[in-house]
Amino acid sequence: MRTFFPPQAQILVVLLLSLLVPLTKPFTVIVSDSSNQSALVDGPQSGFTMNRDGARTDAREQEAVYDIMRATGNDWATDIPDVCRGRWHGIECMPDKDNVYHVVSLSFGALSDDTAFPTCDPTKSYISKSIMKLPHLRTLFFYRCFSYNPQPIPAFLGQLSPTLQTLVLRENGHVGFIPTELGNLTRLKVLDLHKNNLNGSIPVSLGRLAELRSLDLSRNTLTGSIFSLSFPVLNVLDLSQNLLVGSIPSTLGSCHSLIKIDFSRNRLSGSIPESIGSLKELILMDLSYNRLSKPLPTSIRNLNALQALILKGNPMGSATLSSEEFDGMRSLMILILSYTNLHGPIPESLGRLTNLRVIHLDGNQLNGSIPTNFKDLKNLGELRLNDNQLTGPVPFGREMVWKMRRKLKLHSNPGLCYDANSGFEDGLDSTFDSGIGLCNTPEPGSARTVQHLSATDGGTMPSKTDKSSAALHKASVFLRLLQQTAAIASTLIFIST
Q: What UniProt keywords are attached to this protein's entry (predicted)?
């Protein structure tokens, strides 16, 4: 038996990691089925193969499709004498050994200009109970179908065919609870209820869906705690933008196949469990804007595949990062720890993660200097260290500053400065104020000071010598600009002649 989707598509996970912040565009996973669950003998048929002599659609299923289409405002379908042989985008059929075709997939909603599923009449559409008459159904997909006619998710969906693998009810305006009956769909691989108006708690019965690959309940108003998780093949778990409370269950570490975890924008408290370190395939973890109040677990450095760690907006209990905090996280590209109440110095282990592209450590109480090995982060394109208590010279030269430009934020660090000969200022956008000043050249045995401090900054007014140095520096910069202008002018004259 050939599979419904190409054999290599065991799971298609569309995960956009190059733009992980906000990271979080929702997506749908579609999976294939290679198990022999029915007498169906082939994949979805083209018009040519369906026109073979004797081919026909199961009459009971055809009437069911007519009812379903009428319920979504697609009355035109009743004029089609054979819904499988004259099929449209959004319906898939497969034959059995007697050449009788059965409906295996129904999809509704304008997902994109290139995906011409039948649209729904949003003012009167509903899910017809005739769906129960499709015993071979594997995929059911409704997108933005009931926005102006909000209704609960029908409990009878929990009695759908045991062949059902994908249930997507996305942005439909569904109201009320998630039916506990959905836990009966034990062959389900994808459950997507993103962006409805669902409330109440997450049914514990969903824990019976042991074959789930993707669970997306994001952007609802779900309350209560996260039940004990045990999904051995789950790849995507998205519970973001709800009202969930309590702690992150330690059983999360038993979901060894997880690639993406997104619990952001809830009310979760406590700590990140140590068991998280066993998720060796994890690529994205977003726990931002919760109430997590404990330091990072030491096991987090075991996440060798992790590319994005986002914890912004958690109090994290006045944590101090150890110097080895991020050792082992060689794949990390995005680190967002803004406003997490961090204290102490920036760990040097960060400077050894050469794949880093984005670092946000702003809005903390970090002190000490920026590690000098930060200059080796050649892939770094965005750095936010503003609103801390950092001191000393910035270790970046002209090229690195030029590459980051306005994405380099260092302001509101009263003791931070740059060396005159580092090339730092040359890399700045001429209209951009970095918010830090020039370092004084220290006398032997004296401490380094920052030239631009004033009494209102908590420092002292610069001396005449300091002012003279600043004037000389500005004069040298102005001279370089004149030289560059002269060079450009002479080139233009040469071209014109």
A: Cell membrane, Glycoprotein, Leucine-rich repeat, Membrane, Receptor, Repeat, Signal, Transmembrane, Transmembrane helix
